[in-house]
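Same chain as my last thread, 355 residues:
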Amino acid sequence: MVRRLLPWFGANARDLPWRRTRDPYAIWISEIMLQQTQVKTVVAYWERWMRALPDVAALARAKPARVHKLWEGLGYYARARNAQAAAKIIVDKHGGEFPKAFEEVLALPGVGRYTAGAICSIAYGQAKAILDGNVIRVLSRLFGVAGDPRGKEANARLWGLAQELVSTAAETEECGRLNEGLMELGALVCTPGEPRCPECPVRTLCFARKTKRVGELPMARVAGQVIQRRCAAFVVKKEGRFLVRQRPAGAVNAHLWEFPNVEIAAKEKNPAAGAGEFVLTEKESFCRVRHSITRYRILLEAYHAKLSTEAPRGNVPGVWRTAGQLDRLAFAGAHRKIVAALKAEKSPEKRSNAA
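reply #2:
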């Protein structure tokens, strides 16, 4: 299997920027960005990040606001905060040199077994296994691993198989390429919906193909209940400045910026019902954004508003920022779309259509 997969990877691997280096820092950043995010999205973010923060020391000393801004739009912002915390540890405890020992890499904030294995195998050539969604699918089908792949028994077997394969590759010093090949096979050929079995370099070894169970493996996890939520955001402008606030530490999207908002009932006809110190200046929303956070499906509706005369004096729920300053703040993804909608309202084309 290793003998077949390595040449296939050499001939079919996508030309991704982080594959042109063995710098552990660059590989680490690519791996944490790729968690929960598609490759095509990550490329531009990774290149921009590496230009702005080219090494561990640069990340460690960067202002958190800059880190959040560079990450803006990728979601799961704890990844960025953990990365900076890890960079500071590397500078303080490892003299700024990315650690080589697997256990030391694993001890860094935000680094799990898979990420540590990817860094150590790709950057350092160590025989450390990886197991992400793509590799789980490939190994489950090849070796006929039944059961929930994230359950204790099946997961342990998958990790064991992954370790056997990378250990075999160590004989030719190709540990990193073997792991990348497994991931690439899952991304390009052994896909979830319509796997391209005739193109697979290890198809004659595949249990699922021989037993016609490709569609059954890996076993699907039982999906959790989807919950619908609805929120109203209030866009207040005064003397050329907009009222915004920063998410508190420990909350979802902590430290990111947003417009004041409240959750309202799904069928609420009066979005101002929970507006508190805000009064709508227009009845209709000017921007509607649908987005998801884990199992929540959220509709965010943005309204032009003003502060109520009953709002406590000197106790404004946020800070005032100009349109130019909004561009420099790191907003939660849905609220960044509100900023874009505000710009569209001012565009010449929009004004022409309105006239």
